[in-house]
Fold these 3 entries.
Entry 1:
Amino acid sequence: MNNKVSQFYRIEKHCIRCGFCLDICSWDALDAPGKGRAFTIEEDLCPGCGICVDCCPVGAIQKVGAGEDDAAADR
């Protein structure tokens, strides 16, 4: 894996490392590099389906750019 971050999603700091996303991803696009290190989503493997977002119990996986349109609309 080349460790490029997904262009579709990002994993926020409040991730609890439960592993649900690792288990549910059919494309093996998520990686758990080791204790204390943040999970990553591999760009080359992630098709952008969003199932990881739906399964995250704490909402730690966010769509890239989410909230940016909302912030622009508030200006």
Entry 2:
Amino acid sequence: MTHNFPSITRRSVLKASVGLAAASLCPGTVRRALGFESANERPRIGVIGCGVRWDKRVFAADGRYGVGKEFPKFGDIVSVCDVDANRLGRAKDIVQGWLGKVPDSGSDYRKIIDDSQVDVVHISTPDHWHAKIAIEAMRAGKDVYCEKPMTLTIDEGRLLCEACRKTGAVMQVGTQQRSASQFVKAIAMIRDGRLGRLVRVQCGIGGAPVSPEIPVATPPKNFDWDRWLGPAPWVDYRFKGGAPNIIQSWSRTHYEFRWWYEYSGGKLTDWGAHHVDIATWGMDKTDTGPLSVDPVMVEHPVDFQDGYPKVENAYNTATKFNIKAVYQDGVELILRHDTDNGILFEGTEGRIFVNRGKLVGKPVEDLASNPLPEGALETVYKGRELTDHVANFFAAVASRQEPISDVFSHHRALTTCHLAGIAARVGRKIRWDPEKEQVIGDPLAQSLVAREKRQRFEIEM
């Protein structure tokens, strides 16, 4: 398929941006619009967080995994930032290999935010840093590609939506399934009525690991533990080697941060951010939310009291679960650990299952004799030709259009994931007002919608 998206240059962003009404521009957006006349036509990219998701070679020499290598196709990575000096050094070498030039580097992301020559920020930090950095980047007049999940809390999602509206920034969430053909085809089939009326969607997202007791340890000299914690509460650094995981250790940090509610939401937001996003898209619920969320079955590896783990020396996110969200029209969305990874859409006239390897079901087989209408996939993909997720972002940067995985729809999908986590933590069914975005009649559950940030790391709007 030929990809006909606009030429992506710094000047093209200028031309698109200056057409915005001046009254809608914050100072950062004005700086962006006025600052894109340059001899260097390619957008300049700053990378904040150089972990395994960005490029696995920061950890393993032969690692092929990572989304970072897609960005030099569209712009120049001019700066990298990480609080782990070892990873930072490897990131500089990786970028030099891609572009033939050593990027600027540092451990304080604010250097990138304050650099008027940086046009795009790619955020690959742990989840608890996403919102603060993304909001500051947008306020500084930059466009943002942020790895999933977009937020740690529901309140952070509201703040990000507000910042995106006020600044006019383009922000793409790294839920790359939105740009994968089998998922787009599944949505197109639903829109074309191939399943009848949806009644239930089940998201198989797998269980989470447990850990042994992880002892207190001294942070490595190359690692700034205080800055890594950032907005999260201060706790001791913990580490134990020998784990059978990608990072070969149990800890509160690299990669394993996702199994601590302090920094993530466990599988409910790790894989949930992917599959619930597609489920919500298919259900056409991207501007609303459930009325109730019921933790039918949840197991945690440690004991909880009033929504918080009673110990801090072991992983604490849910390991097994079956959590049911119900919407105004009665459609159910279920998150569970015990089925194949993927999404099962169930309708009155058929069902389909989709994951990263397949799209199956009788309605899929029927496409051979009754194909979808011409342009059905493009219509679902916001009226554009399908392309890869990073290309979609840079096309949106050039055209000033909304990317396929926008802040607003992802906030709604991720709110369901966060509500599942809140219900799991308090251990009871909760009711939700999707218009006011508030828990109804449960002060403890409502208190988990937002979290106080550590002093020096508050979010300023």
Entry 3:
Amino acid sequence: MTSLLPSETRRGRTAEQVRDDLATRRPLALVATAGGLAAATSTLLVCLAMGVAGWFLTDGGSHGAPRDGLRTGALAWLMGHGSGVRIEGTPVTAVPLGLTLLCAWALWRIGQRVGASVSGHGPDADGVLDGRRDLVVPAAGLLLTVGYVATAVVTLTLASTPATAPSLPRVVLWAVLLCLLVGVPAIAVGSGRAAIWAGYLPTTVRASAHVVRRVVVAWTLVSLLAFVVALVVDLSTAANVMGQLGGGGGAVVLVVALGLALLPNAVIFSGSYLLGPGFSVGTGTLVTPGLVVLGPLPAFPVLAALPDDGPTPGWTGWLMLLPPLVACAAAAWSQRAWPTAYYVEGAVRGVAGGVVAGVLFALAASVAGGAVGPGRMADVAPFTFDVLLHALTSFGLGGLVGGAAMTWWQRRSMPVEVSLEEPGQ
């Protein structure tokens, strides 16, 4: 902290003023660790409340005790962190990504607050430009991770039973990855370091990252729309399944809540279908635009969105044109914010953004499936490797065409003197 004195003094502040400022700063260790605890417990409390509510809705509290509802809510929270559970001896490893996204959102919001609270620590902007090492974000991220992981470990210890057997290594791994991929960037953004670091990146890298964001968002929306349309088309089947479940309004509420928790999984399955490789809903099954092979399925309303068994209509093959078209439009739209007059620059941005977006979608597909029941239902997942190949090809080519086409359009609309500038100026 004393390294801050010279640069602050150069800007006209006395040493006494600097010391007073340092004395009012919140302790980094306390703020970051408390942030990790708060991020974990905020979503855990929501799951615990839902577990108790579900316990009352299903049997009116006539069976068991409230602690059974609390344990169910805690296990649901752990499943959102990849723990998996055993239900009557059957392993269930599928991750409800809706809960995972809820935890990630809470971690992002609290991580930004932690970053804002610790932004005054470390060297100032002048010190960073002078080459001083700034370890505020790594230190705060490490402590945030410790608080989050500690909460997860304690929760698993209290909620675990020999019958359920959630996996401790998987929970720790998922918690650490959430903190690294969401919590640390949130601290960097909240503390203002991210804006400083981004200024050192080449224009091509920043523009390509913008393309990645556009492609991922556009493809997510298209996949969600496809899933909703498929479900609405066969809404009567979903309603019949809901009627067969029985249990009154309480069961309906629980089924809807479970469907919302699995909605991101369904969107990823939908995107895998549109890319071409498709997915399986059981051992020996196949759901693709060209062929659908199904068998007996569980009574779950979301499964009404599946296409009919057997050969598909001829028009479904044209759905595979959607991925490159979406990537092309997203890359072109992104380049409106990052214009360039050089074809190579535009093409590189588009293809790089499309390829990275394809890798990200394949990674999401790799965690979207898992075992959801006994027997054949132990294999419910997208065909991840094929999804990766199709996503790389479709998004990469679409981004290439979109970047090059927008470059051509921008060259026509730019003055001659602007089009002669070097890339990035």
